[in-house]
Amino acid sequence: GTYDNETHATIRNNTFSGNSGYSLSFCDGTIESNTISANSGGGLSRCNGVIRNNIISDNLNQGLAHCDGPIHNNIISRNTGAGLSSCDGVIENNVIARNARGPNPSSGLYNCDGTIVNNIIYLNSGNYGGGLRDCHGTIENNTIVYNWAYREGGGLYHCSSVRNCIIWGNTAPSGPQLFMCGADYSSIQEWQGAGVGNISAPPYFVDRLAENYHLHTWSAC
């Protein structure tokens, strides 16, 4: 793909596909409105500029790894391994879906310690933490639903500072919604753990089957 450790050029409106390594590495300019798919080494690695409005999908490794700039308004889906791994900037307003267990640590988000806000995180899987694993920044205003883990923490595993999230319909043999996590002011299915202001009433999505996770007006959320 593209390896650029010297300039900060904008990369816009391209298709990167079929590369044997990461499609983009060490590119620190703005990366926007690209399709980054079906690369055998992964989508983006160590790109620290703004990453926005891209489709990052079907890569045979992480979708994004070690990208520490703002990541927003992307569709990050169907990557084998984590959708995002070790990305420590603000992760906002993304759809993170159907990223599946692979040879590397997998989840929707793995080891991302920046602010994770206003994302829809669904139908991801991993051994631990199908939705999020080992994320220790602020996790706020996210919809985290229908993820699964083969061992522990279908929704979230070993995460900190969870607030005002919908955590529902996740599955795992142990801790289907949360494992080694606390949460406040969230809607958590069948939750009986600690925390302030949590509820366990159904969120009532507009149309789950059509993947419309907006809320009906009568939802308690």
Explain this structure.
This protein has no helices and 31 strands. With 221 residues, the protein is mainly beta. The strands form five sheets. It has a nine-stranded parallel β-sheet, with no helix packed on it. Strands 2-5-8-11-14-17-21-25-28 form a nine-stranded parallel β-sheet, with no helix packed on it. A hairpin with a 4-residue loop joins strand 30 and strand 31 (212-215). The chain is globular and about 50 Å long.
Alpha-carbon Rg, integer: 17 Å
Subunit arrangement of the protein: single chain
Mean pLDDT, all residues: 94
Question: What share of the residues lie within helices?
Answer: under 10%
Strand content: 35-45%
Total DSSP E strands: 31
Instruction: State the low-pLDDT regions, or none.
Output: none
Summing up helix and strand content along with how strands pair, one would put the structural category as mainly beta
Tell me the span between the first and last alpha carbons: 43 Å
Count of helix runs? 0
Shape: globular
Side-by-side strand order of the widest sheet: 1-4-7-10-13-16-20-24-27
Q: Main β-sheet: number of strands, strand sense, barrel status?
A: 9 strands, parallel
